[in-house]
Design brief:
With 357 residues, the protein is α/β, with parallel strands linked by helices. The protein is built from eleven helices and 13 strands. The radius of gyration is 25 Å and the shape is globular.
Length: 357
């Protein structure tokens, strides 16, 4: 059988060892430190040919001293540009890679030293790489996982039925995985990652390739999963709507370093984001007089005929400024444009000093 995956490494590796481990040993661990990283580093030794007989060697720090904790039952967004170190972090959390330095624990277990022990406690969906068997119908992949993880029959049927219904997989169960679209495979992979009731779920781009309706279903499914079973979720995605709808907390990583860790709303303050007040006056006038400090602080971005654009800090109230404009200017209409989270994060990346390559 052909299998597309080096996915696996976590979920696939779990499958290979699952038959040897009937049930993972549960290690007592504080709920506020279910996932724990302390000064974790990953350094790769990169060599490239620079001449006929010469090779150049250099170290690349994919992860550079990251520390954070994730509590049991949290849903956390882990975001950053391509090459930021997200996938390397996830691979260390699943035991695929061994950290070069620092301390790392998942559910009280060192992933790289005890991969077999951890296998039953994690589920992984790695982007466009599948953990499913390429030539088999979807249902046969699930049956194999049933055997490898030694899932009790009743629990397997309950979990499978729930996933099939909520992820709309009923019409796909007899279809070979190779014939599924990207979005269909993603839904199939999410179901496969949850059949054995993992405590921790790592998701890499879980809504990639999905249409709007399917994205809504997947997001609601993940919300329900987290609420009903307290599954801890670490989510990496470039679709920031996923983060906004699923996660209260977000971590931003760039060049292997953690740039931000906190509430989603706090990103705007950290990134220096601004709201934009679009003011339509009855006639063309000079720029509206604004203050640089105080409750009315703002700045005029530009003017175009009778329309003016004013920027003010994202955490500032618009009401005092609107009241003043309405009292002193011939106001016809206005609207407020909230800061775009993509722009906020892009500014954070641009402002961060990057180490020399």
């Amino acid at each position: 059988m052909e299998r597309t995956a080096d996915t696996g490494a976590a979920a696939g590796s779990a499958g290979r060892v699952g038959s040897a481990v009937a049930e993972a040993v549960r290690v007592p661990v504080a709920d506020d430190a279910f996932i724990e990283l302390d000064g974790v580093e990953k350094v790769f030794d990169v060599r490239r040919r620079t001449g006929f007989l010469r090779r150049e060697r250099r170290e690349v720090r994919a992860v550079d001293g990251i520390s954070f904790r994730v509590a049991r039952g949290e849903m956390v967004g882990y975001i950053g540009p391509n090459g930021a170190g997200k996938s390397t972090t996830i691979k260390m959390l699943t035991g695929i890679l061994t950290p070069s330095g620092g301390r790392l624990r998942v559910a009280g277990v060192d992933p790289s030293r005890e991969r077999t022990r951890l296998a039953h406690r994690i589920g992984v969906v790695f982007g466009q790489r599948t953990t499913l068997w390429w030539d088999l119908p979807l249902k046969d992949s699930y049956r194999l996982m049933h055997r490898m993880y030694r899932i009790p029959d009743a629990r397997y049927r309950e979990n499978l039925d729930r996933c099939v219904e909520l992820l709309d997989l009923a019409d796909l169960l007899d279809t070979p995985v190779r014939q599924l679209s990207l979005g269909q495979r993603m839904r199939g992979d999410i179901a496969a990652a949850l059949l054995h009731d993992p405590d921790v779920l790592y998701l890499d781009e879980p809504t990639i390739g999905l249409d709007i309706i399917s994205k809504t279903k997947v997001r609601q499914f993940l919300k329900d999963l987290n609420e009903e079973r307290s599954t801890t979720v670490l989510l990496t995605t470039h679709d920031l709507t996923d983060i906004e709808q699923l996660c209260r907390r977000v971590m931003v990583i760039d060049h292997g370093r953690l740039m931000y860790d906190g509430a989603l709303a706090g990103l705007h303050e950290a990134g220096g984001s601004e709201r934009v007040l679009v003011v339509d006056l009855e006639r063309e006038l000079p720029p509206i007089a604004v203050e640089s400090t105080g409750p009315l602080r703002a700045r005029v971005l530009r003017t175009e005929g009778s329309r003016q654009w004013l920027a003010l800090p994202a955490d500032a109230s618009v009401a005092p400024l609107v009241a003043r404009i309405a009292a002193e200017y011939p106001l016809q209409d206005l609207s407020v444009r909230e800061p775009d989270i993509e722009d906020v994060i892009a500014r954070m990346y641009a402002a961060e000093p990057h180490p020399a390559a």
